[in-house]
Amino acid sequence: MCGIFGYIGKKDAALILLDGLATLEYRGYDSSGIYVSGAGNVKTIGAVENLRKIIPKNFYGTSGIAHLRWATHGEPTERNAHPHTDCAKSVWVVHNGIVENYKELGELLSLRGHKFQSSTDTEILAHLVEEEMKLTKEFPAAVSAALKKVRGTYGAAFMHGGEPNLIVAARMGAPVVIGCGTEENFVASDASPILRHTRHVVYLHDGDVAIMRQNSHHIQTLEGAAAGRASHTIEWDEAQVQKGGYDHFMLKEIMEAPGVVENAIRGRIVTSGGLAKFGGLEAVKDKLRDVKRIVIVGCGSAYYAGLVGEYMFEECAGISTEVEFGSEFRYRKPVVDDHTLLLAISQSGETADTLEAIREAKRKGALALGIVNTVGSTIARECDAGIYNHAGPEISVASTKAFVSQLTILALVTVFLGRQRNMSLATGREILAELTQIPVKIDKILQQKDKIRKLIARYSSFRDFLYIGRKYNLPIAYEGALKLKEVSYVHAEGYGAGEMKHGPLAMIDENFPTVAIVFQDSVYEKMISNIREIEARKGPVLALATEGDNDVSALVRDVLFIPKTLEILSPILAVVPLQLFAYFNAVEKGHNVDRPRNLAKSVTVE
Ligand code: AGP
Known about the structure:
Layout: E1 3-8, H1 13-24, E2 31-36, E3 40-45, H2 48-54, E4 63-69, E5 84-85, E6 91-96, H3 102-111, H4 123-135, H5 139-147, E7 154-160, E8 167-172, E9 177-180, E10 185-188, E11 200-203, E12 208-213, E13 216-221, E14 231-233, H6 238-242, H7 249-255, H8 257-265, E15 269-270, E16 275-276, H9 285-290, E17 293-298, H10 300-317, E18 320-325, H11 326-329, E19 340-346, H12 352-363, E20 367-372, H13 378-382, E21 385-388, H14 401-420, H15 425-435, H16 438-446, H17 449-455, E22 464-469, H18 474-488, E23 491-496, E24 514-518, H19 524-535, E25 541-546, H20 550-555, E26 558-562, H21 570-588
Parallel strand pairs: 17-18, 17-19, 19-20, 20-21, 22-23, 22-24, 24-25, 25-26
Antiparallel strand pairs: 1-4, 1-10, 2-3, 2-4, 5-6, 6-7, 7-8, 8-12, 9-10, 9-11, 11-14, 12-13, 15-16
Helix pairs in contact: 3-4, 4-5, 8-14, 8-16, 10-14, 10-18, 14-15, 16-21, 17-21, 18-21
The structure holds 2-deoxy-2-amino glucitol-6-phosphate (AGP).
């Protein structure tokens, strides 16, 4: 996600802001920019180092705002980099978040003669403030009035060229922290760039507006009422702040899952019609109606997410679907035509095998869609259309929150395609209504974090694991096994539970544990039989079971209860405890959890 940083004091603002942006690079970036009062603004694509290199001589001022962009709207280009400004180049803004109603606001502003320089949602904010300044000459009041018109999320900082000793910051749904120094103040998306200057901070609440000067800061609500916010002294170091206080990015990203689901569904559900909507699919929705077959392509976890999608599309949208590894699809002689949809899933948007599979399918006339987390990535650009996850950057090599996001979006796409076909209004509404409950249900699972951590002692001595599931949760057995392999280096194999008698059962004894996904769903009885046959051979079983299902508890060595949900959505919940199980195993083994040996975050070569 983007990072904002602002400084107001007596020192060289450019120097402080550039160092602060470098500290924020862990948040992911594709471009950056800086505005210094009295000196102007500079922005560029790539790392902060690129920005530092092009700062002109004598670029001096003692206040400014800066931004590290992780694109959500608009390609990663210099033109789209923040800060953004208004027509008069007086109002400057840096922003983390999403202005959901930027289209209608932009239309209104265009009618009043405003001209936009970028294709971002953020630029709207500068022009909104410019409009409000015509009504009130008071800059903070103009900012508050403008923000009242915004629907969406923001962690933003504003400056006006005519008031160098003033920064106005505001928070709604995206973190903002104020750093209180001696004759200087700071504002940032998190405390990491502030800590080297001061450990005294104030965290803004949603709806807060902070009016900051060199020697003061005042916090009020959007309505102008004083908001007394406590000051805190941070004990953490920069690294801990970047990990949100967690020991590793992997744990932080697992814990972000509820918000990730909310970001994936935000603005994409039309409850009344039981419909899902995607801005990125508008141009191809008629072609999607004609699709007769779907080929889902991905690698690693993305491939396993695709396997869940296969069950969803077939059962709920009635579309014949197959899933292929990118590395296989590109070398086969795939049967593809103009009624085939190639759906590529990729967090990084740069996986070579997935990219080549897209190119191969497009050569044969298929429509190519992407479910991608990285805006402006190669896969995002080469697909005919697509859907962004808006999951924020995933730093840990092991994919966790992106996988949860992919499943969420696949469920939305299922409703989108299903409602174009014979999915009823009632079914569409049912799936979407339950999808909105998933964040709370994930939260309930995350509250078992310590119970899962304590379980490790009972399993860390085992050298091999079997993960079993059926139907929607067979891919989760594969994904759970992959997580354990990736970060713990322990051998684990995902297997269809129905296959046990066809071979794997021979491996079972007291030294060979099985993780079994046993929800009260359409394959429950079959899974119970599988557990019985394993336990009969003294195989230890750790079961994921539906909350309240005490029958399973009596049958297995350990059980983790998962809130009940629709079978089609159960994989989104099932994967979370398995991610935590893998994480705590790796921690117990003392591995470099975020950077497992031999692996890279994005496999951009074959
Ligand atoms: C998952 O934990 C792995 N890091 C890996 O399998 C990953 O899912 C795969 O390389 C695909 O990456 P992508 O989603 O960026 O295309």
